[in-house]
Amino acid sequence: MTGEITKEAVEAVLLRARERSTLLTDCVDDTELIAQHSPLMSPLVWDLAHIGNQEELWLVRDVGGRDPVRSDIDELYDAFKHSRSSRPTLPLLNPAEAREYVRTVRGKVWDVLEASTFGRTELDVDGFAFGMIAQHEQQHAETMLATHQLRSGPTALVATPAPQAARMPELDEVTIAAGPFVMGTDDEPWALDNERTAHQVYLTDFAIDRFPVTNGQFVEFIEDGGYSRPELWSRDGWRHRVDAKLRAPLFWEHDSSGWWHETFGVEAPVPPDKPVVHVSYYEAEAYASWAGKRLPTEVEWEKAARWDSESGRSRRFPWGDVSADENLANLGQRHLGPAGVGSYPAGASAAGVEQLIGDVWEWTSSGFHPYPGFRAFPYREYSEVFFGGDYKVLRGGSFGTDSVACRGTFRNWDHPIRRQIFSGFRCARTISGRP
Ligand code: AVJ
Ligand code: FE
């Protein structure tokens, strides 16, 4: 959001989030809604009621000061009380009850929005809590999309095919000149606590790939023995490679005709010109080492994405300050897969780096730590409790991420072994100074 945040804009963003979570939960039957499709994921019906419960906690009770709708179920939908794998055994709301619950909460939220002044309390300034809750619902919509990818059987989702670039562009690098850069933000109204505060960082020269690493490039790594050469992997990465018997990205299979992958229930040849997706941090790290490169740090990624050396300021998005649209980035579950590299020239950063936003989340080599001046807001469990864990930061959002939950400063994080998320990467290289 930029400039004036209107109630109409807030309403639209909340409606869009609900449209998505409704679609993702209405397209399967009740048995599938309460089933656990993977021990890594919650049952879809848990996500749905959890979305409603967070909305009740922050908007109905906190901002609105209203009475609870269902305080008896808070504990069931507290993500810190029960592991994802144990959630199917809880006395959860059934699908009809969950739908009724989110509808009741949303009805009260419209009243709260109507009464709000967007400024009475810190949570209410610029409609922050509404923006936070829309982002939360869309984050769970992406999680639910990953659950759909993990479930077996024919697809329940219909999407338009992702664009294939008219021609294969050169997979070259872009040099980012040494100098200062402003990372993070103080004035993005709906930026979450971990994106704050804005602070200056100095980087020496480095090079970064213009595009995310493609399937075609990743196949070369596989066929050059990438998965059987321990020297390409970190110590932890190789141990995991062996223990988990990794041989290719998740959902890939090989036969006499080549590499195939299954996306949302559909088998297809792996498209060589599209960004690789469903790789762990460790696989990304091994590929980069095979390519004679390394993963970018989080600072490098953000400088390549946001820094405009001409104006000497950081942009909200690679292309500028205006919100994403379908010509700028592949976001919002429009396509249900990454687009061919070269499909979004209009989305290039000032430095000329492309497809930083959308398509695939990009692993960086950085752990998840607070910026200078960090203050947990509005709750420690969004970011602070994860700082310093074994997480790696991912940047840029994927085809499954909504634009409300994606910007140049947005930070995601996950364990380095995870690959059910829509994760890919690009490489970087030090070109002067010490490596
Ligand atoms: C920021 C994507 C790591 O899904 O665990 C959802 C987002 N936080 N509900 C997650 C989140 C609370 C979070 N990630
Ligand atoms: Fe959540």
Textual characterization of the structure:
Strand 8 (307-308) and strand 9 (313-314) form a beta hairpin. The chain has two domains: 7-150, Up-down Bundle (Four Helix Bundle (Hemerythrin (Met), subunit A)), CATH 1.20.120; 161-435, paralog of FGE (formylglycine-generating enzyme) (Alpha-Beta Complex). By secondary structure, the protein is of the alpha+beta class. The two termini are 38 Å apart. 29% of the residues lie in helices and 13% in strands. It is built from nine helices and 14 strands. The protein has a four-stranded mixed sheet. The protein has a three-stranded antiparallel sheet with strand order 1-4-14, covered by helices on one side. Strands 5-6-7 form a three-stranded antiparallel sheet, with no helix packed on it. The site of N,N,N-trimethyl-histidine (AVJ) has 6 residues, from helix 5 and strand 12.
